[in-house]
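Budget justification aside, the reviewers requested a transparent look at the raw inputs and outputs of the sequence design task funded under Objective 1. We therefore reproduce one unedited record. The lines immediately below are the structure tokens for a 926-residue chain.
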């Protein structure tokens, strides 16, 4: 427990505070005693160093007001850091839903640092010669202005002198502000701003001389004015410098320093006019204004501190008032020790005078970039950045887009240059920037040009159906056809002269898309989110839940079934089996499927609604039947006459629910919520007696459980299973005569990307496996839905990425062997009787430190436990012998976990769901 003020931020103390409502009386008493002791030692004024809500919580703890602290903690768990502000001159904190909470003013009083301001740039445009900045600015927890002039005050502030120039501001609506705030209490839609800097003002800035001016927004609020420098975006015009040349030779760089938006006025005496390559030489020409000091040399320094100098020699015959000089570098010297492959070798370019001073190599207006071939696969890029500086680099030959058109709904055509000798054996890859999902799309390569046709509404996958691109940023790459993974991918970039053509927006049949850029010239495609502006973000979702959903509950029920499989991520699992059974029976109901932002394939005969959309909340409130296989949310309430069926989605080998209590991965708040969560369901489906016992205890299930078997496993017993398997083989294009191996591992809580998403813990040597097995095997790789990583080797004939295939049940049917670990897939696949191998390289760690297991897997597994990739490959090569060795264990496993297994689970579930209702029929599952 905490011994000093600094310890209040420790993980242990914060965990105790966060789960205070679920803590034992002893833990509550200890926390309160510690808080009291700390305040007695350091004084109550020490609380002022904490954030407002934390200040309240620790005060209540020190006062021993446990029940009040419980309510505050619950409020902050719902919406961390959110509160209301009361008072015009002397602002004070009011917690949502706790207005009657008695607190002293010294605790609730808000200082300026407690009301933090966000000022975010979202766009930079030019209207003629006028500069236009767009963005939003708000003070956290102040959704409404205290005066009508909020957002009307903007200034340019000189970085050195502090001089300020006031600018006109127009208030706009910007829904991005509310979404970006990531809180659910306040709406910041009216915090948008547009700041126009007219051409006249820009010329005045130039007349004031060189310097940097920062954009600052000032907002009136309780007791004072709140101001902050506007910060840059991470992409597009609001994330990259732009240069503007004025008639008097001045340059205005609209850009960013230390994440702040600025205008930098430059008065360069010398600029780089051209940089060309001819006869084995790089020739750089500068131009100097009359009377300006002329640099005497150009210096190039690479990232390894290799230095090349060349004197600047005068050129005669200038047609204007400029004096021109030229520096010449040998390409052979420039490319000495140049790396091979895809590594980029940048050079810093500076102009040097006799005094040894170095100056940036600023580009003259009209400078043209270029690139020049070097050794095979390498080129010299004569490039530029957004602020108009010369950039030189040797690099892998890059495909460069120079034409962008939209030819039809959802179809984007990108054309560009790619030297002919580089195009052989290349394929085009789209890769999601967060999910790391990849799509291989066709590319046309002819005469040093490439053409990419990207249908954002129906993009093909390496293996599986065509699907719309899910929301998020999709980056473009070229890859060698025989490449094993993404390590040598070459990015597709945009010609620097055309970066100002972005953003490019176009509409598909379902939604709009934007082409934009990051890292100056790296283009990406971003489909818009599936939710409407009034549905997106934590605030609007709260409004939909608390108002719209309850309004819809007052309307009559409709004869409809809403299906939710894995929160809308798939058309699969037991909800799919229930849907197909209802369709087979001809039950007269409307079928509504939930689809999330990942845009899984859905049945064309059903209505599809987006997860979290207004239509989805309406369907959830008014459908007579709801079939789910995961949690809905603790806000959900089943209404009278509505039947909600929880089919769930696994047989537990890993510990779940309350059985995780005491482990680092457990959440006391989640455990405490379980009884309410499971009261939402009329009944919960169980696959076997073993699961019934565990789920009832671990999930605190008080209502009925139907031990029917999982509907999803009826597929193993269906009379048409062979015909269905044949259709799946044809759809996937599986080669005839090859053994099909399905690899379906679970996820690891301790394997995360920097963005906190789970990454693939790949321990199979896929290259070695292909070498040994590729001639007569194919490996279908199915990532867990929580895992976001690309699969090396996919698309090269042996490894097939089937993660986005709609339903794993189809894959079970075509698989001859299953490889898994601790996934519940093993319990399902056991219905098939086909061999299973268990790649349990981390068994001890997973069992003892990560999750824990319900039984001794080493003695009951229906197949061998394998530690290394080599052991796995060997077992696959002789899988029939291995299966025979585990025949008795397999039979016992099926007896323990696959009964009932008669193919009638779906019928039993549907009979129970319809029982006593308007669509009841003679039971068929008995």
């Amino acid at each position: 427990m905490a011994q000093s003020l600094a310890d209040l931020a420790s993980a242990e103390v914060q965990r105790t505070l966060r789960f205070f409502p679920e803590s034992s009386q002893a833990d509550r008493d200890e926390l309160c005693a510690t808080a009291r002791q700390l305040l007695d030692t350091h004084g109550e004024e020490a609380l002022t160093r904490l954030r407002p809500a934390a200040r309240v919580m620790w005060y209540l703890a020190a006062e021993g007001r446990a029940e009040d602290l419980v309510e505050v903690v619950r409020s902050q768990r719902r919406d961390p850091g959110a509160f209301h502000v009361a008072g015009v001159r002397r602002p004070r904190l009011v917690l949502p839903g706790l207005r009657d909470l008695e607190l002293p003013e010294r605790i609730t009083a808000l200082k300026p640092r407690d009301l933090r301001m966000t000022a975010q740039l979202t766009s930079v445009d030019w209207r003629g010669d006028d500069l236009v900045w767009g963005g939003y600015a708000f003070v956290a927890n102040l959704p409404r202005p205290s005066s009508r002039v909020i957002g009307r005050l903007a200034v340019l502030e000189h970085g050195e002198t502090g001089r300020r120039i006031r600018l006109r501001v127009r208030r706009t609506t910007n829904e991005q502000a509310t979404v970006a705030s990531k809180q659910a209490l306040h709406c910041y839609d009216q915090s948008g701003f547009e700041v126009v800097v007219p051409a006249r003002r820009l010329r005045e800035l130039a007349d004031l001389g060189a310097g940097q001016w920062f954009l600052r927004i000032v907002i009136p609020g309780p007791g004072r004015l709140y101001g902050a420098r506007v910060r840059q975006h991470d992409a597009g015009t609001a994330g990259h410098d732009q240069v503007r040349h004025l008639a008097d030779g001045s340059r205005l760089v609209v850009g960013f320093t230390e994440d702040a938006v600025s205008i930098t006025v430059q008065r360069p005496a010398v600029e780089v006019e051209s940089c060309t390559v001819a006869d084995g030489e790089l020739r750089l020409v500068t131009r100097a204004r009359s009377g300006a000091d002329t640099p005497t040399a150009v210096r190039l320094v690479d990232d390894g501190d290799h230095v090349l100098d060349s004197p600047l020699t005068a050129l005669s015959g200038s047609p204007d008032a400029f004096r021109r000089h030229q520096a010449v570098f040998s390409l052979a010297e420039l490319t000495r020790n140049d790396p091979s492959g895809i590594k980029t070798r940048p050079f810093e370019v500076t102009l040097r005078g006799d005094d040894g001073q170095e100056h940036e190599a600023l580009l003259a207006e009209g400078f043209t970039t270029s690139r020049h071939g070097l050794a095979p696969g390498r080129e010299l890029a004569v490039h530029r950045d957004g602020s108009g500086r010369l950039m030189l680099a040797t690099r892998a030959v890059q495909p460069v887009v120079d034409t962008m058109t939209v030819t039809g709904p959802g179809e984007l055509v990108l054309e560009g240059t790619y030297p002919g000798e580089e195009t052989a054996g290349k394929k085009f890859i789209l890769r999601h920037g967060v999910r790391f999902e990849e799509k291989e799309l066709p590319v046309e390569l002819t005469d040093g040009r490439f053409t990419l046709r990207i249908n954002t509404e129906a993009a093909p996958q390496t293996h599986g159906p065509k699907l719309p691109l899910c929301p998020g940023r999709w980056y473009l790459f070229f890859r060698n056809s025989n490449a094993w993974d993404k390590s040598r991918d070459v990015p597709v970039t945009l010609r620097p002269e055309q970066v100002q053509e972005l953003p490019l927006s176009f509409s598909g049949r379902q939604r709009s898309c934007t082409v934009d850029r990051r890292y100056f010239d790296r283009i990406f495609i971003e489909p818009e989110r599936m939710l409407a502006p009034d549905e997106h973000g934590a605030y609007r979702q709260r409004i939909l839940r608390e108002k719209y959903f309850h309004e819809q509950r007052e309307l009559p029920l409709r004869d409809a079934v809403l299906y939710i499989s894995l929160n809308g991520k798939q058309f699969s699992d037991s909800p799919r089996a229930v849907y197909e059974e209802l369709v087979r029976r001809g039950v007269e109901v409307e079928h509504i499927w939930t689809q999330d932002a990942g845009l899984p394939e859905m049945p064309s005969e059903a209505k599809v609604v987006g997860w979290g959309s207004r239509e989805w909340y309406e369907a959830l409130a008014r459908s007579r039947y709801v079939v789910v296989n995961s949690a809905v949310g603790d806000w959900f309430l089943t209404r009278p006459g509505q039947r909600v069926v929880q089919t769930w989605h696994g047989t537990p080998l890993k510990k779940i629910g309350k059985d995780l209590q005491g482990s680092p991965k457990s959440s006391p708040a989640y455990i405490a919520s379980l009884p309410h969560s499971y009261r939402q369901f009329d009944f919960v489906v169980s696959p076997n007696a073993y699961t019934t016992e565990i789920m009832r205890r671990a999930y605190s299930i008080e209502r009925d459980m139907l031990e029917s078997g999982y509907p999803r496993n009826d597929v193993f017993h269906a009379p048409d299973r062979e015909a269905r398997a044949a259709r799946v083989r044809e759809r996937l294009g599986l080669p005839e005569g090859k053994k099909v191996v399905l690899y379906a591992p679970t996820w690891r809580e301790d394997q995360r990307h920097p963005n906190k998403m789970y990454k693939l813990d790949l321990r199979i040597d896929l290259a070695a496996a292909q070498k040994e097995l590729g001639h007569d095997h194919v490996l279908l790789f199915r990532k867990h839905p929580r895992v976001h990583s690309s699969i090396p080797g996919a698309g090269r004939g042996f490894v097939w990425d089937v993660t986005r295939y709609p339903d794993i049940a189809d894959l079970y049917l075509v698989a001859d062997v299953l490889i898994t670990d601790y996934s519940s897939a093993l319990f399902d696949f056991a219905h098939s009787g086909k061999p299973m191998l268990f790649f349990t390289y981390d068994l001890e760690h997973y069992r003892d430190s990560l999750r824990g297991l319900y039984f001794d897997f080493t003695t009951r597994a229906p197949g061998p436990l394998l530690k290394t990739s080599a052991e796995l490959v060997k077992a696959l090569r002789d899988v029939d012998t291995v299966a025979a060795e585990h025949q008795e264990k397999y039979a016992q496993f099926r007896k323990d976990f696959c009964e009932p297994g008669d193919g009638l689970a779906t019928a039993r579930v549907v009979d129970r769901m319809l029982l006593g209702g308007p669509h009841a029929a003679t039971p068929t599952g008995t």
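The first strand starts at residue 84 and ends at 86. The radius of gyration is 32 Å. Computational costs for records of this kind are itemized in the attached budget.
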